[in-house]
Amino acid sequence: MGEPVILGGVRTPFGRKNGAFRETHPAYLLTDLLKGLVDRTGVDKGKIGDIVCGCVSPVMEQGANIGRVAGLKAGFPVHVPAVSLNRMCGSSQQAIHFAAQEIAAGDADYAIGCGIENMSRVPMGSDFMMPGGGFNFPDTGYELIHQGESAERIADKYGFTRKDVDDFSMESHRRASVTIKGGKYKEIIPTAGVDAEGKPSTLSRDEGVRDVIDPAKIASLKPSFRPEGRGVVTAANSSQISDGASAVLIGDRDKAMADGLKPKFKFRARVAVGDDPTIQLLGVIPATKIALERAKLHINDIDWIEINEAFATVVLGWARDIKPNMEKVNPMGGAIAHGHPLGATGAGLMAKMCSAMEQHNLSLGLQVMCIGHGQATCTIIERIG
């Protein structure tokens, strides 16, 4: 049996919808990133036991096992297999978990947990929308509603005001902008795309981050999911539709050291939970509690926290229950600022957290993500090198 450790993580900048990556085939976006991961870590491609790829809309250009297509395009030997999975927004965090479990089981010496989503080219919902629009879910016995309405119900539950969620969102942009100006997003690999005129260019920063914030404009936006005056969730306090890819290399600790690679983090907990499928986005609370219990830690022991900012109400609801030090929560900003390319966000947040913890010489990190239909994923890592 092996001991899985993180050997490195990278991500593309996250592009705006119909932005820099609008003309890039999703497989090519992931291809370039896989090459970048190999270059940064120095791992032998031929020793990779599996490529586990998260993708939330695995149809059209993202279908046909895009992880395998990208692996071949990136020059991995044909004997390196790949699988693509969909745990909705937690897909590439789950890909990391599955890759780590392969190492722990002794089934592989190295594995890659990665994710891809080009939402400009394969729109959200492409895997379940019916011809002509709408969807036809079977009767589950539960009220399955839009995540935006779930976000509104979280605001109702905790009494969050429009000012609460807008203030949180502006702070996310402020933190992300400061990080960009300081050159601290070191996990990013500059990636080829196109500019506004369609000419070739290289994107080196997240496109959605606003360096200048207009509070009046943010306050003027109408609710996205409820009539005006009855809701607080707007485009400004929700995650941005984005394009991007991410990848994390996992290896057996002893094998990696024998190969001259440097183990950076070990896993203290890997958790996936189910929760109420109607409120659906508060699974982050039990997921966090279970992960902390398994790791025998308290939230105050954690040095760095990444929680996906699907909606501001999710983070605020989680914080009301978990009671973290909010200075440790998304210190570099989150998905409201840098975007949420669904299948790529999980491994992207992990790469971001690992990079930040190395830069700041921190020990313990926690990542947690809400997932549609009432699920959540949570990971706790500890720095070892």
Structural summary, described in words:
The structure is a single chain. The chain is an alpha+beta fold and 385 residues long. The protein has a domain at 267-383: Peroxisomal Thiolase, Chain A, domain 1. It is 33% helix and 21% strand. Strands 1, 2, 3, 4, 5, 8, 9, 10, 11 and 12 form a ten-stranded mixed β-sheet that branches. Strands 6-7 form a two-stranded antiparallel sheet. Strand 6 (191-194) and strand 7 form a beta hairpin. Helix 1 packs across helix 2 (66-73). The radius of gyration is 20 Å and the shape is globular. 54% of the residues are buried. The mean pLDDT is 97.
Explain the layout of strands and helices.
Elements: E1 4-11, E2 15-16, H1 26-41, E3 48-54, H2 66-73, E4 82-85, H3 91-105, E5 110-118, H4 147-158, H5 162-181, E6 191-194, E7 200-203, H6 215-220, E8 242-252, H7 253-258, E9 265-274, H8 284-295, E10 304-307, H9 312-322, H10 335-338, H11 345-360, E11 364-371, E12 375-383
Helix pairs in contact: 1-2, 3-11, 4-9, 8-9
